[in-house]
Amino acid sequence: MSGDNTKPSDSPESDFTKQWPSELSEYLNLDDDQWSYDDLDSFVSGHVFSHKTEANEVGELGGSSTHHEEFSIRDDGNEHEKKEVRDRVAFKTKSEIEIMDDGFKWRKYGKKMVKNSPNPRNYYRCSVEGCSVKKVVERDKDDPRYVITTYVGTHTHPSYN
DNA sequence: CGAGTTTGACCCGCGC
DNA sequence: GCGCGGGTCAAACTCG
Ligand SMILES: [Zn+2]
């Protein structure tokens, strides 16, 4: 335990900032299920949201988050938690790669082709047990150079950043 | 060896 | 009642 690998300023924490170009990140408007792409363009043009997020990743980035708190514990013999207790946060980031790490470990669990779009949709899930946060990454159909990342759920564990 | 990733198949809800 | 779509899980493979 003596100093054998002491790294004073070589921590990976700096990676976090350099991985997410704030100037290249934009705010995406998520309205239940319908987003106005045209309107969105105008929004991101001069509309930045100062929303507080559950995670410390967004920082000054803006994000549309929809929090639905609904708890209906039904012990009738059916454990089908389908309530909208998942917060959906959509982000539009300008990047050619979508495998950026946001401080959490994600495990891909599905890839699907989006109809009317030549780009596939990737489904990711938090690797932490007990954490059922989902992440969906998809390329913009109108702007392939942009990537839309949608976070669903809330982490039940502290980020390993 | 383990975890993560890959692709296909399966499942369920909803629409008509 | 059946079909379709979207979404999810699982097995297998790969990489470190
Ligand atoms: Zn998590």
Automatic annotation (TrEMBL):
SUPFAM superfamilies: WRKY DNA-binding domain
Listed SMART domains: WRKY
Listed Basic and acidic residues bias regions: 66-85
InterPro entries named in the record: WRKY_dom, WRKY_dom_sf, WRKY_plant
Compartments where found: Nucleus
Region described as Disordered: 1-20, 57-85
UniProt superkingdom: Eukaryota
Keywords: DNA-binding, Nucleus, Transcription, Transcription regulation
Domain WRKY: residue ranges: 95-160
Pfam family, one: WRKY
Main location: nucleus
GO CC terms: nucleus
Composition skew (Polar residues), residue ranges: 1-11
Gene Ontology MF annotations: DNA-binding transcription factor activity; sequence-specific DNA binding
Protein name: WRKY domain-containing protein
Species annotation: Vigna angularis var. angularis
